Amino acid sequence: MTDNHIEVAAARQQPSQDAEASAALERAQTLLGRMTSAEKIGQLHQVNGGYSELEQQIRDGNVGSVINEVRMDTLNELQRIACEESRLGIPLLIGRDVIHGFRTIFPIPLGQAAAWDTQLIETCARVAAIEAASVGVNWTFAPMLDVSRDPRWGRIAESLSEDPYLCSHLGAAMVRGFQGDDLSQPGAIAACAKHFAGYGAVEGGIDYNTTNIPEIELRSTYLPSFKAALDAGAVTVMASFTDLNGVPATANEFLMQQVLRKEWGFGGFVVSDWDSIVQLSVHGLTANDAESALAAFDSGINMDMNSGVYSRNLGAALAAGAISETQLDAMVEPILATKFRLGLFENAYCDPASFPAAVNHDHRELAKQAAMKSCVLLKNANNTLPLLRETITSLAVIGPLADDGYEQLGTWVFDGDAADSITALAALQTALAPAITIHSARGVENTRSHNTDGFDAAIEAARQADSVVMFVGEEAILSGEAHCRADINLPGAQVQLIEAISELGKPLTLVIMAGRPLTLSNVIDKVDAILYAWHPGTMAGPAIADLLFGVSAPSAKLPVTFPRVVGQIPIYYGHKNTGKPPSHDTITSMEAIDNRAPQTSLGMSAFYLDAGFTPLFPFGFGLSYSRFEYRDLSLSAATLLPTDEIKVQVTLQNTGPCAAEEIVQLYIRDLVASVTRPVKELKGFQKHYLQSGASIRVEFSLSRSDLMFCNRHMEWVTEPGDFRVWVGGCSDTEMSADFRLEA
Ligand code: NOJ
């Protein structure tokens, strides 16, 4: 079914894990009986590493977790103090942002998502966990499960998709990768489903901004990925910085109690985001820290990340009767249970000898595979790619990101080292010398620079070459937390540089490295090919070199929609139809409007006069060096009984010149329902590797659970009636068949 050669241990939430969770809970309850109130409050306190009184605080039983300390010797010493010098010997949770790799850096999450490969993403998370555990980290703040439909938001780099289905499947795979089958095994670390919830809907794409999400939309779009991650066994959750419908997540009882604990039965614990409890008064929800501590505690935030407000205020709240010992116990219990599940009471120390070296050959190979499978071929006019060794003798490699081992790593690289990176220029030199001469020039100092002094050298390099590849995009720091952009064109003088080079008329390929979808309308017609590489990580160079020269064919598909212009945002494939949907006959140009044309609503529809209604590239889009044909869509039945399944089959043939991998996508639409439904919803995907000329019959199953939706009463239901199903290589596929769900 897939050509993914990387093995991954089957890691699924199993009944044995339930038994082990209950045993951990019992041990936690017994331990609680021996703890003082102060020691319990200590367990709720997460402290930043390097804090001057940290050791004494741990000795006194006032710290439950440490964040941002990754020196192995220091961590072992902190664990020794906790286990041997504190009264009850309770070990520490050691948290770290291990988001897309630890030392070996994989593509940013949005890039990994473009591979649509659960096995690959699970394996990357597994390797990240092993490398992190090898220094003593036992808890990562990942996966980020925030569905996002706004590429201005810098944190879209960390998102897995605009789509709840894709985000759910990839997020669950990451959880399995981090946690493995058994959290107590070496190399397994606790996952954290974040940021609960709705963070991806920040107004205007500005980080930390307000979110207003109707409950039906929250449940339909933003919550499913969290539910999937918890079903996969994620033992912790992080509250979002944001306020949701007027109540900050960090004090949001609806989210933390109603949804998380009551409806979903979550038995793990919730950590605040960094200082998000003290920030409750900045939001204007509380008047002071004491009130903030109470508001967060009452809503069900178990652990205070960094701020110290729990540590400073909960003792007094307990003494004043504002919180009870029973409530306190309930907050501490899942934290202790997690420590038991991680096996920390048996052994809290890290022994590097039991781990492979970081950034070893296998980890690098995996990083290369991941990078290769995440690059999306967006344009390939006249088969510009792959470049053929036989037909070129010289290649120009131009641009600020061609040879920058740091910028290719992406946003969350606390522990990655640019010295481990192999850049595209280095990889191309290794692969091509001496047969093909490389002429290289940066053109601009960095992606933001407006200085054009380097243009002449770049133009000269291009002039000397048979073919030109330009490495442009965004530096890593232009995306990620708090790095949002209102204009998402290529920054600086890069567009000018592309224009100048394109005038030479040489075959011109752009390799774009970026933390978000960029708007490419102003360059797309000036270049022959575009390979969208996101920030590909440590092994960007070898991966891109192989793709450019056809050692492998690109197979990735977009996990988010690419707008034509920023004003189209939010633009996503799973929108509602509206009562006035546009069609391809719609006039989408201001110039086509007659002078003094009278205002009318007749025949009007939902679109922009100056940007139309289609994106530049739709969700699920991605080209290959080969071609795939879909035909003979068939359903096993015209009606689906509630307890039955429908088999959806299609023939997939590789009709192009080379072996390649295709991501086959299945979408449905509920044609009539008691609430308006998206025009398309992803409900299945598969990857198939086919030799040139080969064909297979691809089969999906649809059952009633795939057709469920959230109704006006916030219940997940199906309604009998007509459905349409599409199968193809992109969300804009038109091949469809209809069936009926019976009552
Ligand atoms: C703030 C971020 O929002 C969160 O994702 C991260 O895990 C914490 N800081 C800890 O660094």
UniProtKB/TrEMBL annotation:
Keyword terms, alphabetized: Glycosidase, Hydrolase, Signal
- Which Pfam family, an example, fits this chain? Glyco_hydro_3
Q: Which reaction does it catalyse?
A: Hydrolysis of terminal, non-reducing beta-D-glucosyl residues with release of beta-D-glucose
Q: What is its EC number?
A: 3.2.1.21
Fibronectin type III-like domain segment(s) = 662-731
InterPro entries of this UniProt entry?
Cellulose_Degrad_GH3 (IPR051915), Fn3-like (IPR026891), GH (IPR017853), Glyco_hydro_3_C (IPR002772), Glyco_hydro_3_C_sf (IPR036881), Glyco_hydro_3_N (IPR001764), Glyco_hydro_3_N_sf (IPR036962), Ig-like_fold (IPR013783)
As for family, the record states: Belongs to the glycosyl hydrolase 3 family.
Task: Identify this protein by name.
Answer: beta-glucosidase
